[in-house]
Write a structure and sequence with these properties.
Shape: globular
Helix content: 25-40%
CATH architecture: Roll
CATH superfamily: Hotdog Thioesterase
Strand content: 35-45%
CATH class: Alpha Beta
Distance between the termini: 24 Å
Number of helices: 3
Number of strands: 6
CATH topology: Thiol Ester Dehydrase, Chain A
Strand order of the largest sheet: 1-2-4-5-6-3
């Protein structure tokens, strides 16, 4: 069951997505938002693959980065990435459906640490992302 804080978190992410043309271009659908957490999904399209016929790494990174942003900003505190990294584990192809789950590892006063796991429609982990954010004192909404 979602709390009042989770409802506020969802409102913040809705606001973010309305102003995020790139995440909308990716086709990201928000599945679940809770304080410090997000779960999003997208389908890989033809224009998202490289010359080898597999997903361009920037697409997987962008999916994870959006999930990270939704998780670390959803307390209505503007947070910006300080450091990110990704490990690509399995290839992704046109038509694959990817789900990214961002989980908060640490919620500090000025920083937050998040892990994002990306799985395909077969429930195989295809990438792992880690993001460190800096928290400002600005509100998003």
């Amino acid at each position: 069951m979602h709390t009042a804080k989770d409802k506020e978190a969802a409102a913040v992410v809705t606001h973010m997505l309305e102003h995020d043309a790139f995440s909308r271009w990716l086709g990201i659908t928000v599945l679940d938002i809770r304080e410090g957490y997000s779960r999003v999904r997208m389908t890989i399209r033809e224009e998202m693959v490289n010359g080898f016929g597999i997903i361009h790494g920037g697409i997987a990174f962008s999916l994870a980065d959006s999930a990270f942003a939704f998780a670390c900003n959803n307390r209505n505190t503007l947070s910006m990435a300080l450091d990110t990294s990704i490990n690509f584990i399995k290839p992704v192809h046109i038509g694959d459906i990817l789900t990214a789950v961002a989980t908060e590892i640490h919620n500090g006063q000025s920083t937050g640490l998040y892990q994002v796991e990306i799985r395909n429609q077969k429930d195989h982990v295809v990438a792992l992302f880690k993001g460190l954010c800096y928290r400002t004192d600005k509100k998003l909404i």
